[in-house]
């Protein structure tokens, strides 16, 4: 079977970027700190559940978390649970050989640690219904994961650059919203990993922009316009995301100001002089989309403040 021009382009780009991957992998390994999930879980709070051990059945009053923090932690955990799907998607695009394969495996191992520590914390502290959580995990993982942003290398790299930063922001804010110093410390530790992952992918795509600016710009715009978090397939995700947004844990303003804009600025997207044709057109589309997103974020903020004011007035 003969290769298409797109196949040839992708293969050449992957080969050209392998040295960048090796360099970024070395940087990551030098900066990443070893840590152990079991050290972030308050095991002394644990006790047996109902079932074979004849312990106490879970009930809502056992949870000391707010509804907002609880829903956010569930979304964060179920997202991490679908890791096999993400590993497959990334390995299919990046490949399993050389520095690419080493990175994909390292990334997967670190992300798996996040799921371990969050689940242990939620179970030990009885923060969520463990039966409902397990059933949700089964349903979500049975769906698998398929990227909605295109399956080219450039689309995949652009997506994870934004997604890792979005996850970092969500984890940090979830910890703060929990009102539990142990949870906040745990989520800050997880977020630190996500930040290093973001830097890896951000630097990788930055290098791709230098090599193939027009094609990379087109991928960036496609990803930004169609962006959704990988947990979007979770049952009740829309309701949960509204609760999370209303709590200010992750909303349109944070997505625009703290995720998209910093990464785009780092890539110098709007000041580049090496774009033409489809690349320039994509940049114009991106600028227009960001204006619309900014307006939507402002509208959401206004409505949220109005709702909060009405709620405060009723309580008063």
Could you give the topology of this structure?
Elements: H1 5-31, H2 67-81, H3 83-94, H4 98-124, H5 130-143, H6 153-178, H7 181-211, H8 213-225, H9 237-246, H10 252-266, H11 278-315
Helix pairs in contact: 1-4, 1-7, 2-4, 2-6, 2-9, 3-4, 4-7, 6-7, 6-8, 6-10, 7-8, 8-11
Notes on the protein architecture:
The chain is an all-alpha fold and 316 residues long. The chain has one domain: Ribonucleotide Reductase, subunit A. 72% of the residues lie in helices and 0% in strands. The protein has eleven helices and no strands. Helix 1 crosses helix 7, helix 2 packs antiparallel against helix 4 and helix 2 runs antiparallel to helix 6. The radius of gyration is 21 Å and the shape is globular. The mean pLDDT is 90.
The largest sheet is: none
| CATH-assigned homologous superfamily | Ribonucleotide Reductase, subunit A
CATH class: Mainly Alpha
The CATH topology comes to Ribonucleotide Reductase, subunit A
CATH architecture: Orthogonal Bundle
What is the radius of gyration? Answer: 21 Å
Q: How many domains make up the coordinates?
A: 1
Could you say which overall geometry the principal axes of the C-alpha atoms support? globular
Q: Uncertain spans, ≥5 residues at pLDDT below 50? A: none
Q: What share of the residues does DSSP label as strand, in percent?
A: under 5%
Mean pLDDT: 90
